[in-house]
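Sample entry (219 residues):
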Amino acid sequence: MRLLLIRHGQTIDNVYGRLGTSAPGPELTALGQEQAAAVPSALGDDPIEAIYASNLIRTQLTAEPLSLRRGLRIHVADELREIRAGDLEGRSDPASVRAYIGTIFAWRSDPDARIPGGESGREFLDRFNGTIDDIAARHEGTVAVVTHGAAIRTWASWVPSNLPSDFGRMHPVENTAMVVVTGSPADGWTVTSWAGEPVGGEELEDASAPDPTGSAEAG
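Predicted structure, serialized as tokens:
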């Protein structure tokens, strides 16, 4: 099967660089609405058979224009949510952002490392993989999965076999950027495309937003 992993549109947390992972979370900014509105045209005639989103409202609002265009309902899957920030929730100071992102990027060598008050890499992988497995059991074709920046960067550079371990760290996933993955739980997954900018084009990117869960990290 083929998974279109699409990050949600911009929220006010992205604008101010806040770690916002709790449900229901903020709605989309005006730019985020533009980004979401561009998704259906950007995907063209791609034969999508289902649309999934997390339990955070921003993913559902991002999926809505595609849902309306294709006449497909949005399946809400709680476990597609963002990686939990725990004690760092709502913070934007550099130390908190480093603690969150640094723990996530350490998971390849230490999957039991835990975000303070949040989840470990093993816990994230178990719940995200479980949902992807369920999706794969229900569908054989192309499925749009609207989820979150850190979740996409972590899963897509951890589970598929064809990327180096630090790929997600070095490559951005801006709001409404898309990573395409093919395969199955049984046969494994392969990343076939990693488009870091919004699917509607770079003119929909907010270069001034700190947005730590989507920006590339040098070093």
